[in-house]
Write a structure and sequence with these properties.
With 588 residues, this protein is α/β, with parallel strands linked by helices. It has 24 helices and 16 strands. The structure holds 2'-deoxyguanosine-5'-triphosphate, calcium ion (CA) (2 copies) and zinc ion.
Length: 588
């Protein structure tokens, strides 16, 4: 058992004792021992084997025994008994904003409340407000806290996590005591779904930075605060962790706390193979765990750590142990696509179906934002709930788009709207519009919107049949998933990718933050088969253009480069590529 685990358990013992109403000196002794242990520079194993635990300030006989038991056996009978003596739900209640140990103890002793659900009921029936030291106000606050806790107990979309993280990062950057700072963890790796948000700071005044972090507006509850780290719950219910390290340690800590865990394990292995040790404190010339500064291999940046381990710099998005080492070992990483490479989006909706803007407004917005082209792809008739278009209305829309383009070209402007549709793939895999209608459009996206089967082969067959149609340029949001909301329908993506490769059909990376569909894990396979990606924001209103940045991040996670992504092409090359599918048909 390592220091962090031991410290965590000691910390928890302190809290449990407080819940039992033990005297404050005793409870505080555990909390401060936990902090001391976290800050040790030597390993606990070593201290125990050399009988030197007692030399540590604040660790008396009783604590020494407990720590020894934990480190040597991985368990502690005292802790287990203590836990068993209290309802497990009490610890959950502590995580609710507004509930500290004293309050938890009060509702437990006086109302017999043992779980969060019971607490909610007690609040709703007004019993909590009547307790001494509570009142209406704190009862309302607890109820609100329970709602928040429900939210943060689940996971969060990347877009939401970024919306919380980016302003905090800006504030940290501007703080006078902050030397370097970054997000870390899954946010930095651009995972589609986020557990908690992590920040790393280097500073000479950690206390000042931690005070700022826990005291800033928007913090609902401080879950933990030590000398070098803190965890808080932000308004909206997400947890945020901050670590503060010295500037020397910053690069190593950044690499460590960015993860992923799996990536870190592989990095540590590589270090060991070279007679080195890698941990959050440094890369050390040592055969055993250490944080001795004398042994540290100096690295000013993450880049130098990779280089010491014989690797090219691995961008955070790729640090999932999904094959990044094989590439980095060659000494060069390919340049991944960047969102500024994108010249437009080829799947967007207007107010002709379920989008908000008029065709003219969309053109104006896309042009002003520096895009070279923007396709209008409203739904087809079968998506009647989205006011899908039939052939007649589609023809009328095309005339309107051409009129907008005519005006643009008169003004000498090079931006173009593209005509298009997001055509429904019907039950048997035929499309919702005849080929001769599709033929007249610039960009055809085909998507499954309804009638998904629970049988994988049926869904797969429908997608394959659509890909085989020469008029279809790309398949939209291939698996239909809505993150944290709806599972993908069963489909065999490899089989669909294979047919797309054969027919020259592209696959969309739908950049809507709840979709990110096709999943990043499948892009390396698609790329290896030569299937091109189109990063589309599926805009239903102008603000959705911002999704392209997220989509590009997910494409990077999938290892995609500029040349793998169709909408990095200039307008002229794109028009050629769009024609290609129609002329090529099935490559045999
Ligand atoms: P999340 O928060 O569930 O979305 O995912 P992460 O990756 O942000 O995980 P988190 O916040 O628990 O920890 C941040 C990073 O710290 C993680 O990616 C790798 C590193 N880390 C945390 N715990 C461990 C550990 O026990 N072993 C190793 N090797 N790395 C760890
Ligand atoms: Ca995290
Ligand atoms: Ca974390
Ligand atoms: Zn759609």
């Amino acid at each position: 058992m390592d220091k962090e685990n031991v410290a965590e358990i000691l910390q928890e013992i302190g809290v449990l004792l407080e819940l039992k109403g033990e005297n404050p000196f005793k409870t505080r002794a555990y909390a401060s021992a936990a902090r001391t242990i976290e800050g040790l520079s030597e390993s606990l194993e070593k201290l125990i084997s050399e009988n030197r635990l007692g030399e540590i300030k604040g660790i008396g006989d009783a604590l020494q025994k407990k720590i020894t038991e934990l480190v040597t056996t991985g368990e502690l009978a005292y802790y287990e008994e203590l836990k068993a003596s209290l309802p497990a739900g009490l610890l959950d209640m502590l995580k609710i904003p507004g509930m500290g140990p004293k309050k938890v103890k009060a509702v437990y002793d006086r109302l017999g409340v043992e779980t969060v659900d019971q607490l909610e009921q007690a609040c709703r029936s007004g019993r909590v407000a009547m307790l001494d030291g509570f009142g209406e106000k704190s009862q309302a606050k607890i109820l609100e806290g329970i709602q928040f806790r429900r939210q943060y107990a689940t996971r969060h979309l990347l877009v939401q996590a970024l919306a919380w993280a980016e302003p905090i990062l800006d504030e940290l950057r501007a703080h006078p005591d902050v030397l370097r700072c970054s997000t870390a963890g899954s946010v930095r790796r651009f995972k589609e779904v986020i557990g908690d948000v992590d920040f790393l700071v280097s500073s000479k005044a950690p206390a000042a930075v931690l005070d700022f972090f826990t005291g800033r507006e928007g913090v609902m509850k401080v879950l933990a605060k030590g000398d070098t780290k803190s965890s808080v719950i932000l308004e909206g219910g997400i947890q945020a962790d901050l670590r503060v390290v010295s500037d020397v340690e910053y690069p190593y800590a950044l690499a460590y706390f960015t993860g992923s865990k799996e990536h870190n394990i592989a990095m540590r292995q590589r270090a060991i193979q070279r007679g080195l040790r890698l941990n959050e404190y440094g890369l050390f010339r040592s055969k055993e765990e250490t944080r001795d500064p004398e042994l540290r291999v100096a690295c000013a940046t993450e880049d130098e750590i990779f280089s010491q381990l014989g690797l090219a710099y691995i961008p955070p998005e790729l640090r999932e142990d999904h094959g990044e080492f094989l590439v980095a070992e060659t000494g060069t990483m390919p340049r991944l696509v960047e969102w500024t490479d994108l010249k437009g989006s080829l799947h967007n909706h207007s107010n002709w179906s379920d989008g908000r803007g008029t065709v003219a407004e969309i053109a104006e917005f896309a042009r002003e934002n520096g895009f070279a082209y923007w396709a209008i792809n409203d739904h087809s008739r079968a998506s009647f709930q989205a006011h899908g278009l039939d052939a007649d209305r589609l023809r009328k829309q095309v005339l309107e788009i051409r009129e907008v383009n005519r005006r643009l070209s008169e003004e000498g402007c090079e931006f173009r709207l593209l005509t298009g549709v997001e055509v429904d793939i019907l039950g048997d895999g035929r499309l919702d519009l005849p080929d001769d209608v599709l033929e007249d459009l610039d960009v055809v996206v085909a998507s499954l919107h309804q009638g998904f089967s629970r049988q994988e082969p049926e869904n797969t067959r429908r997608l394959i049949r659509a890909a085989e149609n020469r008029q279809v340029h790309m398949l939209g949001h291939l698996t239909g998933r809505l993150l944290l909301e709806r599972e993908p329908y069963p489909v065999n993506p490899q089989a669909v990718i294979d047919v797309c490769a054969e027919t020259g059909t592209w696959i969309e990376l739908n950049a809507h933050p709840a979709r990110f569909d096709l999943d990043w894990r499948l892009w390396p396979y698609a790329k290896s088969m030569g299937v091109k990606c189109v990063i589309n924001c599926d805009a239903h209103r102008n603000e959705h253009a911002g999704f392209l940045r997220l989509g590009a991040g997910i494409a990077r996670k999938g290892g995609l480069q500029r040349e793998d992504v169709i909408n990095t092409l200039s307008l002229r090359s794109l028009m050629k590529a769009l024609q290609g599918k129609r002329e090529g048909g099935r490559r045999s």
